[in-house]
Request: fold
Amino acid sequence: MGRKDLTTERQDEILDAMERCIAKYGLHGSTLNNIASEAKINRGLIHHYVGNRDDVVQLMVERLLERYQSSFKNYAATRHDTDRAEIIIDYYFEAWYEMAPEDDALLLELLAENERDPHIHKLLINLYNGFYNMIARELGQLFPDADASQVKFVSYSIMLLAFGHATINWIGLPMAKQANVRSIASHLVQTLS
Reply:
């Protein structure tokens, strides 16, 4: 009988440690030594199971997008009696804020490092494209007869509204305008019918 493959388990441990490091030191201070110390493993295991620091950050971003995709699917599965368009709007303008705070911390740290690090810049573009594609896929399925360019326009607009609204929330401004943003997003979706 062969050895059990520990790759997934070790990668999760390393990424969990990276999240804790980001909370403590920020992205810039989340060195491989800090990650190894936080995970209580040898730094060489990080290289073996993930790679270098850029590889760790890349896996973090991929995991973040997977969490959002899974979160949306789980959220939609609990809303059987609700219009699918309403589910999309509710998710991006309400439920999204209930995601783990470490996800917000990672996203904010990535944004802060974007200008200084071309690798981070590329990862952010991929992350935003992933969010955009999630929305476009849902809207495309919901409105199969809609013009493809209009679906892309609405998807991109909803993504921008959601991220802009999240940014306002992150910096602590009151959420008093939330109903207005939701209304704009709903109106955009209605243009597809």
Q: What stands out?
A: DSSP finds nine helices and no strands in the chain. The two ends are 58 Å apart (CA to CA). The chain has two domains: 1-51, 61-190.
